[in-house]
Write the structure tokens for this entry.
Amino acid sequence: MSNTHAAINKLNNLSRRYIHSLSQTPHRLKKRMLATWTPDEELNQVRERSGADMKRKLNWYELIALGIGGMLGVGVFVTTGSVAHHHSGPSVFISYIIAGISALLSSLCYTEFAVQIPVAGGAFSYLRLTFGEFVGYFAGANILMEYVFSNAAVSRSFTEYLSFAFGENDPNVWRVEVHGLPEEYNMLDFPAVALILLLTLCLCYSTKESSMLNLIMTVFHVIFFGFIIVTGYCKGSAKNLVSPKGIAPFGVRGVLDGAAIVYFSYIGYDSASTMAEEIRDPSKSLPIGIVGSVLITTVLYCLMALSLCMMIPYNEVSDRASFSIPFLKIGWRWASNLVGAGASLGIVASLLVAMLGQARYLCVIGRARLVPSWLAKVHPSTGTPLNATLFLGLCTALIALFTELDIIIELVNIGTLMVFYLVANALIYRRYVVTQHTPPLHTILFLLLLSLTAIGFSMSWKFKQQWWGMPLFGGLMIAVTTFFQHMVPSHAQVAADWSVPFMPWPAAISIFLNVFLITTLKLLSFQRFAIWTCLITIFYVLYGVHSTYRAEEIEMGVNEVSSSTANLQTKVELELL
């Protein structure tokens, strides 16, 4: 009985404390939303909250393999067929080029941050250090949503291609239909769940062994890509690129709409930046790994898309298992089975890398106390974020069990593009205001005008109201950027090891492209994104801001005690002298 009373009293005390915390919400929001950390604090004080350090075991070539492995399986096998059939036609390779340019510019922004702040938090850490806690939390929550949803989507594609590897032509043959559930949630995918749980256990064991497994799979995967590319050029026909309705049957608009969707294919390169705490030479390895993997992947994507559209006309390309079916149509059933097996292997590699990155994001968000701190713990013997890996693995498996691919992709794209847009803004602000100590007003005004011109250009394109809108806003973007470059020049070398050249142009073009690609998405994407934004904001107001406020109070108290102890010790020593 006494234990019951003690438990009730404890619960009542916790309730009173939480109600008191909620009453302090406006004050705490004011203090915490724009709170920033220095790179030294992020690299030392915050990292110590994990209890143990991640082990630096990876080299630059392993980072390239991680970047390539993370992107290849996701993009070609999941989005190419649908975009070719419904949006871009044979010009899907141009969509990949446009999305690749945007990804390359974003990767340059990531790289400068990663070299200067080599922590596992990626965009979350970069934005928290630059724009404050809430913007960092917003980016981190969207990155986690991107990883979990995209991994669930990709794992379901694994089941489709694996069925072709075993000679089955129905992509749903290994799924279980449940009639009581809504239409797009009623095909239960148990092979996808099994794959995710198996990879989760593998990632809990060791980062080094996981990266070696990825390296081996990526080598085989690139060889397999070469087989598809060569076969497409040998067995295909260039006539299929212009028939039945030309190389761009849906026009320029279709090509650009397709670019926004295939941007899903480039999710994965940012996971290389989350390995910053496990790289032996971050200043050398991170630029090579991040930028190199994006360039190599873009070339392979374009060649693969071309080979697919040469083998069969775009209007015969299937939305599902799009690279297996063309081999059936040319009479190569054995090759269709081989493509199914190779695509499955590529999807496993991409899942391995993405799940590696998502756990490190959540670990660093846990260090910041924006989510429960037990998610930040690093296992002392394996050097991996064990709790974060297990938690996200279970979440991904649950979504993969129920949810169809089409529901996921556009929500993932809008969140990803929004984060990359914020990182490009943060790089300009950090380069000119934080590093060079110029007045912030000029930079803030430039970023505002740049975003407004990008929105004006994009709206003119989307709604086709006034033809003069695009050249007007495009010209204004160039004029504003040129004027800012002249008035607030960038130092030639702001980072000790590596920095983005020709600033502010790469970051400004990245901002412009990300805004443009966001506006090409459907209204439903914005509605789902608005709901997600409301949910994560409510979580921050009800939990995150109070948790970080208490963590700051505790650390300030510890620092004051340490300072008082040190002062007392100094005073005693002086008196003894």
